[in-house]
Design a protein that fits this description.
mainly alpha; 2 helices; elongated
């Protein structure tokens, strides 16, 4: 039985058709967001770290997911892929 691909879970602009949960760019964005939220919940807030994380998150959103597509390990062209030898 073949697996169905849920198109809602695929990154729309990804040339490889990567799933959102496995996309390295989206994962990094989520990690920045989680760090920011956990830092804001603390009683003693380090404002410098909060400002750095906020600016990193804004920069990441401004650049978008496509900014990391060239360096993505999943994004390999057919020329760069290693041929299978038998």
């Amino acid at each position: 039985m073949a697996k169905k691909i849920n198109k809602k879970k695929i990154v729309g602009i990804c040339p490889v058709g990567m799933i959102k949960t496995k996309c390295p760019s989206i994962r990094r964005t989520r990690q920045i967001r989680v760090r920011l939220l956990t830092l804001q919940r603390e009683k003693k807030v380090d404002t410098d770290r909060v400002i750095k994380l906020r600016s990193a998150l804004k920069e990441k959103k401004k650049r978008g997911i496509a900014g990391d597509c060239e360096t993505c390990s999943f994004n390999t062209t057919k020329d760069a892929a290693t041929p299978v030898t038998e």
